[in-house]
Structures are given as structure tokens and as C-alpha cells.
């Protein structure tokens, strides 16, 4: 097994080491050949003889060699191992490579994204991509540590599920056992997390995958994304906001990423619109941008409902939210609808909405009133949400939660321009999976088993 990473070679002067990695670059000086050997931690210069001539960039090799200090004037301060080099004693080529379809030693920004995604497994060899993935892993780890420290339980919820409204289209999966019926992939674990609260869990979180069949937009990941989904019982709006805020303050401190203002400033929706013209605003100065300062803010007091084009009402954020307590009477009486404010809080960072949550309607009457205002009749409400209304009737605790988007937060921290730069295998903007060719045609027999006939558009 590989024991030593390339960045550790710098501490091994005078020792014989065994190294594994890829040939990053090769410089042939006739009798001696230099290569930079690369692994995920960096590169080191290796000096070899004739046998190194057979090497090509991106070959996978094993090298046994002596770590030597470089003469001062030969040192390369630009790389971590620049003060040393390895004199090769033994070389094994573990795998020869074909010529790569794209270079992997630059930052990759100038390469066509379709090509990068087709060969994503090569694209992530570049150090920029590896760093993004390593940061993502650390970020999630720090979030977990914080929440475990506050007695949260990490619980998984189903992926094959029933529709839950988050304002997008569902991905649907046909059932073989019940022909003609479909599962929906969750747009969020919203209902499950609330059911966990009714189950007495009190503090839940999940690094949750959410699926939304939205029209592709440049600032979104198509199809699926990851959010930190959390829910707590016996809380008020400010409690959830504080928990999320303290979590990010601690995580960002550990990552050494500066935050502009702690505590996060709070704006009402009306103030935000008046001041910035939008509810996702950027509080950073040019100086902040240069210093990678993250400017968080909260937006609260959104209207609960907005008019549909047909003249009815729909929810602005989340139908499971409770109104602010002073509007509960109006909600139950279905009066004054346009003025009802929701307990929704949105978290904004650097001009993006990076998450949102609310205190929920924990009584059956409250939730029912929301759906009635939206024009659903009794039968429809029972069909779609009967399980929730029933569950809320069995001693549901007051509860609320939030779901910050992991991909978007990481895009802000890294300063990347696209969310796809912080996801290992994102879909293309046209909705094709990286590397593999989904969505793809399935065999006739498979469709037959599902009782489905594809009517293909020409
Ligand atoms: N379910 C909401 C969402 O996915 C978040 C929440 O209210 O907790 O945006």
C-alpha cells in the first residue's frame, strides 16, 4: 500500500522513499530525465536515467528513490516540495496511458465544459478540482461535527417517494409492482423531516440529495443538488436562525473563510426590496470580494401567498410553513390573505439565496387552511396530504427547520463561477449525466414490464 504522499517527501531528506503517482511533466536532458511526479497532494521532481525516456505524461508509476536537498539556487519556492528532489533508484510503470483527450495540468477554465464533463474522471485530476472536492468533504465534515456536538441525529429519508411541493416539477419513476403508478423523487425531505419531529426525534439533520426537474438555469445545477436539511422541535423562528448562523460562523472560522458581519444582518422582505430591489442581494464591497469575504444576511417577513396567473393563491416559499403568530387567525379564517406574513427565513450570501426554512404549521387546521386557500378541495387535500394532516393530529410538537444549499455555499467560498465546479459528477446544463449517457433509451421489454409505451418525438 502507498504510505507516503508526495507532499510528505519534503520531510524525508536523506531517506529512501517509495512513491506512487502520475507523471505530470517530463523533461528529457539526454543522459538524465526529469519528471514531476504527481499525486493528489502535489508534485515532486524526480531525476532518472535512460529508463525514464519511456515515460509519457500521465503514466502511472512506482518510484523508489533517495530524497536529496536541492542546492539553494535550484530550489523552486513555488511548490511545497521545491527544496528537494528524488533521485530514482527503481522505476515500475504500473500503467501506460493513451494520450489524454484534455489537458489536466491547468485550471481547465478554458476547456469546453461538455468535454470536461464527458471526461470528468480526468478533469478531477487537475489540482483545482481536487481542492474543491477536498474542501467539500471538509465542509460537510465540519457541519456534521457541529451538529453532532448539539445532539442532532443524522437520519436518511426515502428517495423513492411521493411528490412533495417545492415549486418545481418532479422526476418520476414507474413502479413495476403496481403498474401504471409512479414514485416521485423528493424535491426535498420536507415532509419526512416533519414526520420525524412527530416521531419525537427533536433534532434531525441530513446531507440530503434533492431532485427538481427545473428548466436548466446557469446559476443552478440541473436535476439534483445537495442540501443540509435540518429540523428541530420546540423552537421559534429566531432559534433556528441562530442555530444555522452559529453553525456557519464556526465552520467558516475553522475553514479560515472570513464572514463580513456576525451576527448576520436581518432584513424584512419589504426592506430588502426597498433597499436593493431584490431579495437576494450582495453586501460585499469590491475590497471584500478581493479578500473572499462572505456576506451573509437573513431575509424575513415574506408574504405567505401570492396570486396565480389564474387569479387564485399559491404559496411563495413553502406550504408547510406557519404564518407569523399574529396572522394565524387570518389564515384559519382565510381572510386578509395577501397580507399574511410567513415565518419563512431566507439565508442570503454574496447575492445568492443559499437556503431557507420556516416554523411549520404543527396543527392539522393550520396546514389544511393553507391548502384550502390554494383552492384544493377536501378530496384533493386528503389524497395528496392526508397523511400529513392525520400525523399532525397525533401530538405534533411545534417545530421548524432550514435547508442551506451545500453546492451554492461552496461555490461562494471558492469563488467559482459555476455550481458544477464544486460537484464531482454534475449533469451538463442540458441535463445529461457526466461521463455516462443518461437519460438513455431503454429496451422495449423493460418498458413492457412497466406497462409503458414510449411515444417518441421525431
Ligand atoms: N424544504 C425547504 C427547501 O428545500 C427547506 C425548509 O423549509 O426546511 O427549500
UniProtKB/TrEMBL annotation:
Aspartyl-tRNA synthetase with relaxed tRNA specificity since it is able to aspartylate not only its cognate tRNA(Asp) but also tRNA(Asn). Reaction proceeds in two steps: L-aspartate is first activated by ATP to form Asp-AMP and then transferred to the acceptor end of tRNA(Asp/Asn). The record marks 29 as: Important for tRNA non-discrimination. It comes from Candidatus Roizmanbacteria bacterium CG22_combo_CG10-13_8_21_14_all_34_12. The gene is aspS. ATP binds at residues 212-214, 353, 405-408. Residues 135-426 form the Aminoacyl-transfer RNA synthetases class-II family profile domain. L-aspartate binds at residues 166, 212, 317, 360. This is Aspartate--tRNA(Asp/Asn) ligase. Its main location: cytoplasm. It catalyses: tRNA(Asx) + L-aspartate + ATP = L-aspartyl-tRNA(Asx) + AMP + diphosphate. It comes from the Bacteria. GO terms for cellular component: cytoplasm.
Amino acid at each position: 500500500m502507498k504510505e507516503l504522499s508526495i507532499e510528505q517527501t519534503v520531510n524525508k531528506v536523506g531517506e529512501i522513499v517509495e512513491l506512487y503517482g502520475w507523471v505530470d511533466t517530463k523533461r528529457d536532458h539526454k543522459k538524465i530525465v526529469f519528471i514531476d511526479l504527481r499525486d493528489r497532494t502535489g508534485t515532486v521532481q524526480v531525476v532518472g536515467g535512460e529508463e525514464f525516456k519511456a515515460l509519457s505524461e500521465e503514466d502511472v508509476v512506482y518510484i523508489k528513490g533517495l530524497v536529496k536537498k536541492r542546492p539553494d539556487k535550484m530550489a523552486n519556492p513555488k511548490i511545497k516540495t521545491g527544496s528537494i528532489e528524488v533521485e530514482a533508484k527503481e522505476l515500475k510503470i504500473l500503467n501506460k496511458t493513451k494520450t489524454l483527450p484534455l489537458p489536466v495540468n491547468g485550471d481547465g477554465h478554458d476547456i469546453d465544459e461538455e468535454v470536461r464533463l464527458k471526461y470528468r474522471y480526468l478533469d478531477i485530476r487537475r489540482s483545482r478540482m481536487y481542492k474543491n472536492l477536498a474542501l467539500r468533504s471538509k465542509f460537510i465534515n465540519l457541519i456534521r461535527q457541529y451538529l453532532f456536538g448539539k445532539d442532532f441525529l443524522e437520519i436518511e429519508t426515502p428517495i423513492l417517494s411521493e411528490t412533495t411541493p417545492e415549486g418545481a416539477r418532479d422526476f418520476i419513476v414507474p413502479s413495476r409492482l403496481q403498474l401504471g403508478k409512479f414514485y416521485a423523487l423528493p424535491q426535498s425531505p420536507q415532509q419526512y423531516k416533519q414526520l420525524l419531529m412527530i416521531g419525537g426525534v427533536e433534532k434531525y439533520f441530513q446531507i440530503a440529495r434533492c431532485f427538481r426537474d427545473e428548466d436548466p438555469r446557469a446559476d443552478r445545477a440541473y436535476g439534483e443538488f445537495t442540501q443540509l436539511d435540518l429540523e428541530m422541535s420546540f423552537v421559534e423562528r429566531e432559534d433556528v436562525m441562530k442555530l444555522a448562523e452559529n453553525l456557519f460562523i464556526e465552520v467558516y472560522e475553522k475553514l479560515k473563510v472570513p464572514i463580513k458581519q456576525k451576527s448576520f444582518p436581518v432584513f424584512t422582505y419589504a426592506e430588502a426590496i426597498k433597499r436593493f430591489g431584490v431579495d437576494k442581494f450582495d453586501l460585499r464591497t469590491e475590497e471584500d470580494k478581493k479578500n473572499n469575504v462572505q456576506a451573509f444576511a437573513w431575509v424575513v417577513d415574506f408574504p405567505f401567498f401570492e396570486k396565480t396567473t389564474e387569479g387564485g393563491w399559491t404559496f411563495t416559499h413553502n406550504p408547510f410553513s406557519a404564518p407569523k403568530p399574529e396572522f394565524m387567525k387570518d389564515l384559519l379564517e382565510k381572510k386578509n390573505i395577501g397580507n399574511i406574513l410567513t415565518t419563512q427565513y431566507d439565508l442570503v450570501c454574496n447575492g445568492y439565496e443559499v437556503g431557507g426554512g420556516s416554523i411549520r404549521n404543527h396543527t392539522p387546521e393550520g396546514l389544511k387552511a393553507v391548502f384550502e386557500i390554494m383552492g384544493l378541495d377536501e378530496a384533493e387535500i386528503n389524497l395528496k396530504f392526508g397523511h400529513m394532516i392525520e400525523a399532525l393530529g397525533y401530538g405534533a410538537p411545534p417545530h421548524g427547520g432550514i435547508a442551506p444549499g451545500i453546492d451554492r455555499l461552496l461555490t461562494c467560498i471558492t469563488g467559482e463561477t459555476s455550481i458544477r465546479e464544486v460537484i464531482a459528477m454534475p449533469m451538463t446544463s442540458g441535463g445529461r449525466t457526466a461521463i455516462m449517457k443518461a437519460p438513455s433509451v431503454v429496451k422495449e421489454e423493460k418498458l413492457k414490464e412497466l406497462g409503458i409505451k414510449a411515444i417518441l418525438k421525431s
